[in-house]
Specification:
This protein has about 290 residues and is α/β, with parallel strands linked by helices. It is about 35% helix and about 25% strand. The strands form two sheets. It has a nine-stranded mixed beta sheet, sandwiched between helices. It is globular, with a radius of gyration of 18 Å.
Length: about 290
């Protein structure tokens, strides 16, 4: 089976549950709060491992005590290898505001993620073999991310979130791109997701997949445009659903199935996660993923 190498961020999430998201200048009192491990890289690595993939995770952390908290949280996960690399900065953090309808707004600091060098990213990606996958996101700088993508001998999956730098130049190095509809429009200039996916594929991305929340997802590849609806669920908190989708999707690909074959399980897992509070705490268990 192929291996997964996740180059991504690890941090601490503080989730605040609010009656509604604040308007400009408005203060809203939270009804509850939750502290948990976070970061797109961490969430995706944990999800892929729980879904049965052989996962090596590399992430920068600060030297402020939070690295011990994150290491302890990850100690119980079945990661093949974990590399938490110390940086002279505060550990990355996010404040997640969640409204009563499950929608969220997120503000983050990423000093550790920004401190990752091209040399570090290249050295990690050089471990990716021809049959393996490298998974990267938008948290690191463009130079480090693109260097890793070029250095990997295997396939690359880019989840271009958060959208911080031009993605189009990286598409020829990207067999699989996963973005949401907002990101797809920002990269391509096309408001309609199907047009955006087709454009992304035409720029050199073998498979361009656009997630659409409750409307499912669509993707463009050499066979054309395909679409699949999402299972209907009662939404509690959408935070981290995209990370769960990415982790399960990639686990399926390492097991030898196609993107189209892997999507149903990825959607089922993401749909389950939004029925729960939090991001890390909402990731389905290994037992739940084995049934999806």
């Amino acid at each position: 089976m192929s291996r997964v190498f996740v180059l991504g961020n690890a941090g601490v999430d503080l989730s605040l549950y609010l009656p509604h998201l604040p308007h400009p200048g408005e203060t809203v009192v939270a009804t509850a709060a939750r502290r948990a491990p976070g970061g797109k890289g961490l969430n995706q690595a944990v999800t892929a491992a729980r879904a049965g993939a052989d996962v090596t995770f590399w992430a920068p952390v600060g030297e402020d005590g939070e690295e011990a908290y994150l290491a302890a949280a990850l100690a119980g996960e079945k990661l093949a290898a974990l590399h938490l690399v110390a940086k002279p900065h505060p550990t990355d953090r996010s404040i997640v505001m969640v409204a009563a309808d499950g929608e969220n707004s997120i503000a983050s600091i990423g000093f550790c993620a920004d401190a990752v060098t091209e040399a570090e990213a290249t050295a990690f990606a050089a471990r990716v073999g021809p049959s393996d996958w490298l998974l990267v996101q938008g948290n690191f700088g463009a130079a480090a991310t693109h260097s890793a993508m070029r250095a990997a001998a295997g396939k690359v999956m880019l989840n271009a979130a958060p959208l911080r730098w031009p993605v189009a130049p990286m598409l020829p190095s990207c067999p699989l791109l996963v973005v949401n509809r907002v990101e797809a429009e920002a990269i391509s200039g096309f408001a309609e997701p199907q047009d955006a996916a087709a454009w992304l594929h035409a720029q050199g991305c073998a498979t361009a997949l656009v997630t659409l929340g409750a409307d499912g997802c669509l993707w463009a590849d050499a066979t054309g445009l395909s679409r699949r609806p999402a299972p209907p669920v009662t939404v509690v908190d959408t935070t981290g659903a995209g990370d769960v989708f990415c982790g399960v999707l990639l686990a399926g690909l390492t097991a030898g199935i196609t993107v189209a074959q892997a999507i149903p399980a990825a959607q089922a897992a993401a749909s389950l996660s939004v029925t729960r509070n939090g991001a890390f705490d909402a990731i389905p268990t290994a037992a739940e993923l084995s049934r999806s």
